[in-house]
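Format notes (please read before filing issues)

Several people have asked whether sequences and structure tokens are stored in separate files. They are not. Every record keeps both together, in the order shown below: the sequence lines, then the token lines. Line labels are part of the format and must not be stripped during preprocessing.
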Amino acid sequence: MSADVSRPIVWSVAGNDSGGGAGLSADARAAEGCAVHLCPVVASITAQNSLGVARVVPVAAEVLDAQLAALAADLRPSVIKTGLIGSAEGVAVLRCWLDRLDQDGGPRVRLVVDPVLGASAGGAAFCDDALLAAYRMQILPRADLITPNRREAARLLGGAEAATLAEVPAQAAALRALGARAVAITGGDSADGADGVDALDWIDTPLARGWLALPRLDARHTHGTGCTFATAAAAAMARGFVTADALVLAKMATTAAIAAGHAAGQGAGPVGFDAGFAGDARRLPRLGCDETPPGPVRVPAEPWPGGLYAISDSFAQAAPLLAAVAAAVEVPGLCALQLRIKRAAHRALDDAAFAEALQAQIAQAQAAIDALPVERRPLLVINDHHAMVLDALEAGRLDAASIALHLGQEDLLALGAAGRARLAAAQARGLRLGLSSHSLWELARATTLQPAYVACGPVWPTTTKDMPWHPQGLHNLGWWARMAPVPVVGIGGVLDEVQVESVMAAGAADVCLVRALAAQLGDADPAAAQRERLARMAAACQRGRERSATLVVPLWPGASLDPAAEAGA
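Then the structure lines:
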């Protein structure tokens, strides 16, 4: 970020760590690494070192109020993040300023709460009953995100700490019931991953919930991890990300910070901060689909072919394109052909008649593909109709080696645990799975399902689907291609060969074409025109693939969804 571009402003209302490990010291490191401007508001002063906390002194309410008043007059925040506040009076001052900011006519200030209730080193308690009540009554109902560890979650709820992973989701739901819009119960300090290998954080947000997982690092210097996680989340929210995406980035940032920790004193030293975390594919977490922690990423044995990926709404639309593939033998053909046959387009048919028509079109497409020379046969991809595809595979009516299934994230979740197990069994028999992704949390979730590819879109605005997502642009497509552990397919708004070349140059394995290869009403010779379009697109695809070697990959992705979308979720 250049010096003449203003940074989003984040206030951190937290404690000063005299040992330089946690509190405002960790917040400052994280904020700088995330390219936001941090205003450090001292709410408490601590006497501590790497061995523990000797004393905590909350600043006087009038001193805290004066700091916030000075900032409000000149440095209005996008996000306020809290850490060690130290007193109920301090909470009351903060809540007063939140109310004033809510009423000043500016954009809503988002609030991230790291409820520091005790020291991880030394065990000192920072929170009496009055402060605990203030958190529950004044802070939680206004919080956009709260990031307790499991001990803090239990104390906020007045119950016992979760003894098993299975108890954590209910505690997060209970915290949301107290008013918090989103909850992340961090578990990096708990050695109880699905197999003891992963550090697991449970997230419960308006748009996504599940376990965020990354391999646990064997590190001693972990002082300040909670502060880093909350500040990184606040920074990402200030940069325009919805909460679920901000938590993916916070998980990445914190893991990288632990890896960059260093010794300082005789005890656990502080975490550092790696400003390159957001472009490090090793740090992309996995997000589970339900309350079961996600397993490791496994790349399918069957590779995904690269090139032109056509999408047709019916076999009637696909047939002329397959004929063009057959005729243009000197031109590279298609790597895949997706039949995107929507139920809504066949409302006149009852369910039985629609299923019969769908099966007939799939059979027609497969027969037309089988009639092509082996080297020119695209893989047939069926969109959405997972039950029919799985039934046909299990009955032997479809061959897993020549067909693939594409699902959106809503379909994926609707399968449930039993449906996903059935899908995994089909994948083990050779079925290739493609998954849509539009956001960081969807990408993190997709990686857990062993997909053959992940689609990133819409790259440009599209009229073929109504969706809330911002266009990803070549910027995000390049980031997806760098970060995803499987091939990435660029889709959405691709209409000409310049765009085809750009998508491939951004690092995509395939480029999806919906309207660009379809027959046009003005074609004097439709067959010749379709062969010509295929040739132009194939040449552009090859040019883009050659340019991809010079790709400059963005360090950070861009936000793909307006935070206002969380309000109605």
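For reference, the curators noted about this record: The longest strand covers residues 37-49. The mean pLDDT is 92.
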